[in-house]
Design a protein that fits this description.
CATH topology: Rossmann fold
Number of strands: 10
Shape: globular
Largest sheet: 6 strands, mixed
Strand order of the largest sheet: 6-7-8-3-9-10
Strand content: 25-35%
CATH class: Alpha Beta
CATH superfamily: P-loop containing nucleotide triphosphate hydrolases
Helix content: 25-40%
Radius of gyration: 19 Å
Number of helices: 10
CATH architecture: 3-Layer(aba) Sandwich
Structural class: alpha/beta
Order of helices and strands: EEEHEEHEHHHEHEHEEHHH
Number of domains: 1
Amino acid sequence: MKDDVLSITTKGLTKSFGSVMAVAGLDLIVPVGTRFALLGPNGAGKTTTVRMLTGLMRPTSGRASVFGHDIVSQKDEVKAITGLLPETPGLYSKLSAAEFLEFIGALNRLQADVLYDRIDSLLSILGLESRQDDLLESYSSGMKQKVLIASTLLHEPKVAFLDEPTSRLDPSASVLVKELILALAEETKTTFFICTHMTSFAHDISDVIGILNEGELVTVGSPDEILESARASSLEEAYLKIVGRKVDREALLSWR
């Protein structure tokens, strides 16, 4: 596959913290415009992977590039073309949605006319135009997450990294976030790189899934390809087979 149709490439990407191997020899390619879900249990290395790919953390070994920019030697260029929604983002609750997005736009050095056009467009897509001047402290969790996703996409990144975008959200808010990502993916050429431990969300949101377990990428494919290879009827069943997580019912009930 040609480099000009790839958004992310990694080769042997590794990160260790002393004797702990967080990410081990990650080899991955993500074509432009892909909705890629990195699925794995807590502690599998998903967040560490994102931090390396966004230039926030230096790998121990291996290499990676984002749209041809090396994540170590060209990390400023990488940061300029990517957007990151961390698992625990900060949000200034005493600002309105419009004010918060203006602040984020200023940090990204967007020109005023471009910034205001993008804010109006994103808030309209999100269905928040009537609430844009209300303080964020009055927003529901789902609405706040919409604003945070808007802030991630405000400078029109080529790749949007979303780390557990539905964490701490109720089911209805999670559905809103899922629908938002799908809608934005249809309207833009943005590549979405989504970390999650929720199999149903990964199945619904992505066209390619990678399963990470104990720092190792153990499988990559479309949801249907993963189901077929694992001979499973659901992604949850396939995931449990692949990562080897089984419930010991006898041990669970042994306290009785």
